[in-house]
Design brief:
By secondary structure, this protein is α/β, with parallel strands linked by helices. The protein is built from ten helices and 13 strands. The chain is 29% helix and 18% strand. The strands form four sheets. A seven-stranded parallel β-sheet has the order 2-5-1-6-7-8-9, sandwiched between helices. The chain has a two-stranded antiparallel ribbon with strand order 3-4. The protein has a two-stranded antiparallel ribbon with strand order 10-11.
């Protein structure tokens, strides 16, 4: 059995002290959500579902990516005595903007972002996870629209964590909207490992900065290779990518807000910046370093 992601970033130390993200809402823009047993009690923890692809009301996932992502941040399942997810008592808000192939159109993505903007107070959304990205075309109009909406969520006071993309290892490979100056862009710290669960990536896949606007990215890294998390039918699966690294940080932010509920998103970002583990990799790969919950939460 692979080592749970929660142990890799020392979230177990937080769990042992009762920090589990209780009542902190995390919104996931992705392929939807299978109502896995690890999200129980489902009636209490999955507080909202919005579908901008097929318009369905009931919670579902016809791809699996969204369920896997959500599990990394919020699964309450156990491996031995350790929780599988980083914030196992956080509330889940699932926003489906990608189809059964994991693809999406801009209008659906923008609708999802706007829905969060309109409803974040209603569902106590404090953190937004976006494991989605598209190639940075710099001054492209569609890219600018995406950045505008993502930045609006940050201006609303939400902590926005976005995957840096899997187009590395060359420079300037951070995907949109991970190139936003405001939000927290997450890369994979372990992208030199052999890929087991997803064969479309080569090694050293994590997007590298700086961006084409000379913004140093990613901001932070987390494990993203061979991550064990929730799948269809109450089963589990292994996937790899910066998509998997982003919810590690989203879950970490939920724990931080539980301990320091008065923190603004700027406070949280600065706290993260100064409490990471430095790695033996270049700045344009690791950013501030790898997230460490013991340091972040002053444990």
């Amino acid at each position: 059995m692979l080592k749970p992601i929660s142990l890799q970033v020392h979230a177990d130390s937080a769990h042992q002290r009762g920090l589990m993200g209780k009542d902190i809402g995390i919104a996931f823009l992705d392929t939807g959500l299978f109502p896995h047993k690890d999200f129980s009690p489902i009636s209490q923890r999955i507080t909202a579902f919005a579908d901008f692809v097929n318009g369905r009301i009931s919670c579902y996932d016809d791809n699996g990516h969204g369920t896997h992502i959500t599990g990394i941040a919020a699964s309450s399942g156990l491996i031995g005595n350790s929780f599988l997810g980083i914030a196992p008592k956080s509330n889940i808000i699932s926003v489906k903007v990608l189809d059964s192939f994991g693809n999406g159109i801009q209008s659906s993505f923008l609708q999802g972002l706007e829905w969060i903007h309109q409803n974040y107070k209603k569902y106590n959304i404090r953190v937004v996870n976006i494991s989605i990205g598209t190639a940075d075309t710099d001054a492209d109009e569609s890219s600018n629209k995406m950045l505008l909406h993502v930045n609006q969520l940050w201006d609303d006071g939400l902590i926005v964590c976005i995957a840096g993309g899997n187009r590395g290892p060359s420079g300037q490979t951070i995907t949109v909207p991970g190139n936003s100056r405001k939000i927290i862009t997450v890369g994979a710290s372990d992208d030199s490992m052999k890929i087991i669960g997803n064969y479309r990536f080569s090694r050293n896949y994590s997007g590298r900065g700086p961006t084409k606007s000379c913004i140093m990215k990613p901001d932070v890294v987390a494990p993203g290779t061979n991550i064990f998390s929730c799948g269809f039918g109450n089963q589990y699966t292994i996937k790899s990518g910066t998509s998997m690294a982003a919810p590690v940080v989203s879950g970490a932010m939920a724990l931080l807000l539980e301990k320091y509920p008065y923190y603004s998103n700027k406070n949280a970002k600065m706290k993260l910046k100064h409490n990471c583990d430095k790695l033996k990799t270049p700045r344009h790969h690791q950013g501030w370093g790898q997230v460490n919950l013991q340091k972040l939460l002053d444990l």
